[in-house]
Specification:
The complex is a heterodimer of chains A (about 325) and B (about 220). Chain A has about 325 residues and is mostly helical. Chain A has helices spanning about 1-45, 50-65, 65-80, 90-125, 130-145, 145-160, 170-205, 210-225, 225-240, 250-285, 290-320. The radius of gyration of chain A is 21 Å and the shape is flat. Chain B has helices at about 25-45, 55-75, 75-100, 110-135, 135-140, 150-185, 190-224, and strands at about 10-15, 15-20. The chains are: A mainly alpha (about 325), B mainly alpha (about 220).
Chain lengths: ~325, ~220
């Protein structure tokens, strides 16, 4: 029996590492490709400053890469982790960590490609605003990484925290559910944040004097579009740290797994939708700076309505955890 | 890696209940208070028309934040809420930066701090809303667009507290966990200072600004 538990843990660690890196490679590659495509367009429009555009492209791609690097760190940790004589529960935790990081890196990777690409194109249109564009791109794509950072935190907690003596039966599902909840919910938020950041780079290139209002509204818009990922984080914290009584019925673990899935999938759409609202607001603030307050209010109200579906998902997840 | 998820707590039993105090957080918060008050006293000491560098720095922070508050809330309300917003931003900024000094920790790494600040913003926003619209119009908003949306509107408002406080907490705690794990893996060579600069200074500044702006925005949504 001793041997079998250790084998199962190893299987889960390798599977988790594979999932983390395999899915984690998807987003960043797409995002970087978008940046490179826009950089090509920019160079063909304004070949005279191809050096600046090339530099900016590389910086943008380096940041878009970070979601994948997070996934790489988690994958290496899972592959070379010394498991010692851990209990069977660690297997579920490793699988959850892989799921959380793998799914969580997709959205941020794709999203942070947008500001890079738009900044490259903006530099070709408005070379004088180059430094403002690069700064805004850095801020925007760094905020895009937040969902991936949350996913990495959940993954690291699942890997390293010693959860002590908890019953195996419902807790394994709680750990896998925690990973799914955080990982899936991060997809939409990361992508949506990228849309807002991309629109802000485009807007600054169009009207460089609007940079203060555009960056402010971009940050607020991105922050609100991260809310679904934050709900995912909340649900996975509850799943990880609530102590569940032992149960031999299969229904209890399935309810916890379903709670994770519900919050995870429920977070994808609102994240993207909120990002679109922020994108529109940022784009039009750049063209109409005097009315930025009205635009921000409309954006926030629209985002609140679009967010209500994430709140429904959270309510159902909480019901699944605490009532069912 | 034992430090992950462990806290130093002072537990005082009072009539069968345990009052738990996270000692580190309280001490670090007081350090931030003392640093901020010292900065305020030095910056405003012997004010001159031609400001010294530290006075100019203080004036810069205040005027930028006051301007942002004025843009969102209008001249009248900015007089009431401007000082609060400036104080909130400076407190958060210093709290988020504190972790880059060895042996000190960010107070914002603890959910109690951020949840407290989030609750403060929530109550202030709703107080401002009741004050400017009147109680009747305020209650009426919860029954929009149809009366049975009331419970969901209330959950939506409460979710704002969750989102604003978990955003700051997650970012700061995430940064510190990543720094802890990477330091452990690389024996504290080369990488941790770079990570400290990114998560401590860069992300810390952005998140302090986002938290402050969202508090302003929540007030302005309630007022209008």
């Amino acid at each position: 029996m001793e041997f079998e538990v250790q084998t199962a843990i190893k299987i889960a660690a390798y599977a988790g590492g594979g999932i983390a890196m395999g899915l984690g490679a998807v987003g960043a590659a797409i995002g970087e490709g978008y940046t490179a495509a826009r950089a090509n367009l920019a160079v063909s429009r304004n070949p005279a400053i191809s050096g600046d555009i090339f530099k900016n492209m590389l910086v943008g791609q380096a940041i878009a890469e970070s979601a994948s690097i997070f996934a790489l760190v988690i994958a290496i940790l899972l592959l070379f982790m010394d498991t010692g004589n851990a209990s069977m529960l660690k297997a579920a935790a490793f699988l959850g960590a892989g799921l959380s990081m793998g799914f969580g890196a997709i959205g941020s990777g794709i999203g942070s490609g947008y500001p890079g690409g738009e900044a490259c194109y903006g530099i070709s249109q408005q070379p004088a605003a180059g430094s403002q564009l690069t700064t805004n791109m850095l801020v925007g794509s760094a905020v895009c990484q937040t969902p991936a950072i949350f996913s990495m935190v959940v993954a690291l907690m699942l890997i390293f925290i010693d959860f002590g003596n908890v019953p195996l039966s419902p807790t394994w599902a709680a750990f896998v559910g925690a990973g799914l909840s955080m990982g899936l919910a991060a997809i939409g938020s990361g992508y949506g944040g990228g849309l807002a950041a991309g629109a802000s780079c485009e807007g600054i290139a169009r009207t460089p004097q609007s940079v203060a209002s555009v960056t402010t509204i971009m940050l607020v818009g991105q922050a609100v579009s991260q809310t679904p990922a934050i709900f995912g984080l909340l649900i996975s914290f509850i799943l990880m740290f609530k102590s569940f009584p032992e149960s031999s019925v299969l229904a209890t673990p399935m309810a916890l797994l379903a709670a994770g899935l519900c919050m995870g999938f429920g977070g994808i759409g609102p994240g993207i939708g909120n990002g679109m609202a922020a994108e529109g607001a940022v784009r039009w603030v750049a063209r109409n700076v005097e009315h930025s307050n009205d635009l921000m209010r409309i954006m926030l109200v629209g985002q609140a309505v679009s967010q209500s579906t994430a709140i429904y998902a959270m309510v159902i997840s909480l019901v699944l955890i605490f009532v069912v | 890696m034992g430090e992950l998820g462990k806290l130093h707590q002072l537990i005082i039993p009072v009539f069968g209940y345990n009052i738990t105090i996270n000692l580190e957080v309280v001490i670090m918060t007081w350090i931030v208070f003392i640093l901020l008050i010292t900065f305020g006293l030095i910056a405003s000491h012997k004010r001159q028309i031609l400001p010294r560098p530290i006075q100019a720095g203080g004036e810069l922070i205040i005027s930028v934040l006051y301007g942002l508050t004025e843009d969102a809330l209008g001249k009248q309300l900015a007089r009431t809420y401007g000082p609060l917003i400036c104080a909130l931003f400076m407190f958060l900024l210093l709290s988020n930066w504190l972790g880059i000094i060895p042996h000190l920790e960010e107070p914002t790494k603890d959910l109690n701090t951020t949840l407290g600040l989030g609750l403060m913003g929530f109550f202030i926003a709703h107080y401002a809303g009741i004050k400017s619209k009147g109680f009747k119009a305020y209650i009426k908003e919860y029954f929009q667009p149809i009366f049975f949306m009331m419970p969901l509107n209330i959950i939506g408002e409460l979710a704002k507290i969750v989102s604003i406080s978990f955003r700051l907490f997650g970012n700061i705690m995430g940064g510190s966990i990543i720094i802890l794990v990477v330091s452990h893996l690389t024996y504290s060579l080369v990488l941790p200072p770079i990570l400290n600069a990114f998560f401590g200074i860069f992300v810390g500044t952005i998140q302090a600004f986002v938290f402050t702006m969202l508090t302003v925005v929540y007030i302005s949504v309630q007022v209008k």
